[in-house]
Specification:
about 50% helix, single chain
Length: about 160
């Protein structure tokens, strides 16, 4: 994607492998393990963020909001994943720490709606853990929620 003047914030060249078909093995090496560690970092980060917001809002309302705020975690998780994956760094802080990025299957940047839907499907897939086995049989190591959202997770290149 690029805008008419050839630069700016819309400029995002797709990686070279996007147009050639199959990904090189280096782009997928260790992706499943790195994703697992990245998830732990992200869950810890989102948990601290939720607790801080919960505490601040609870104290500002003199405790009146503490009983209304339990759905805070899924709301923050939705926007955390949606905004960070669709952002210019193309991954959550945990993914970036582990050297991963998320792109559309054609190599372009992930729109917010796809990133947010990807996050929702990921959290729902925890209720059916056997769906994670799909990545063992998929050529590009994509999980079921990756396939449904049309994204691929690769190493940063």
């Amino acid at each position: 994607m690029s805008n008419s003047n050839g630069g700016g914030w819309m400029s995002d060249p797709a990686p070279a492998y996007a147009a050639r078909g199959p990904l090189p093995q280096a782009a997928l090496a260790g992706v499943r393990t790195r994703r697992s560690v990245a998830i732990l970092f992200d869950l810890i980060f989102v948990s601290f963020l939720c607790f801080a917001i919960w505490l601040c809002l609870g104290l500002l309302s003199f405790g009146l909001l503490w009983f209304v705020l339990p759905p805070l975690f899924p709301i923050i998780g939705f926007f955390y994943n949606g905004l960070t994956v669709s952002g210019w760094r193309m991954g959550t802080p945990g993914m970036r720490l582990m050297g991963l990025e998320v792109r559309m299957i054609d190599g372009s940047r992930v729109p917010f709606i796809n990133a947010a839907a990807h996050a929702v499907m990921y959290y729902v897939s925890w209720m059916f853990p056997l769906v994670f086995l799909v990545s063992l049989f998929e050529d590009n190591k994509r999980c079921l929620h990756d396939i449904l959202a049309g994204v691929i997770v690769t190493r940063r290149g």
